[in-house]
Amino acid sequence: MCGHNKWSQIKRQKGVNDAKRSKVFAKLGKLITMAAKHGGEVEMNPTLKIAVDKARQSNMPADVIKKAIQKGTGELAGGTIEEILYEAYGPEGTPLIIEATTDNNNRTVSEVKHILSKNGGRLGESGSVKWMFDRFGYAEITRTATMDMEMVEMAAIEAGAEDISALDSVVVVYMKPEDLYQVKSEIEKQGFEISESGFEWKAKEKVKASEELVGKIDALFDALDEQEDVNEVYSNLED
What we know:
4-stranded antiparallel beta sheet, Alpha-Beta Plaits, globular
């Protein structure tokens, strides 16, 4: 079974409770704006709906969400935002994928390079890392003490899931990226609560890391998380 990305999961949990909520809102706003470029009707744009759901889960004000959508559709100025994927290496050559949304790629790449350099890493060339990962959609089902795992697995499989992983507090369902909205909707129709959904890069092969390396990677991920344009970071280390 696939394993959920520990650092990505921790970052999302931190995002909801972070005292610097404005920074979290800024990141979510850019994701909404990017998604809205393909249509501003939430119910007609699955990617936008997922981004808006994330924002609502983080208690982002409705008027801020609306403005982010309007920037993407061109109703408001400030929609010149692009998605960037950086392939990089962390301490001890650990392969990394860094996802960002930015209105100034030169600024973002310079800051990401600086963070990597300070933490024993470096940027890689295009194609140097991505081949080690697969792209998945995911949906987290809130796990309860009385939950029948066989029923959950059956519902997920019938909905079109590719894989399932049971963690302490959630059951993570994986699917092809293009099937995320459909699978999520089908699972919810079965009466299961989806607490989180989105997309992530999963390493084809996981590598066990020493405590020392884990500490270095944690420090690097924390530093990247502080960079306002970086949304997610993935590695091939075991959780």
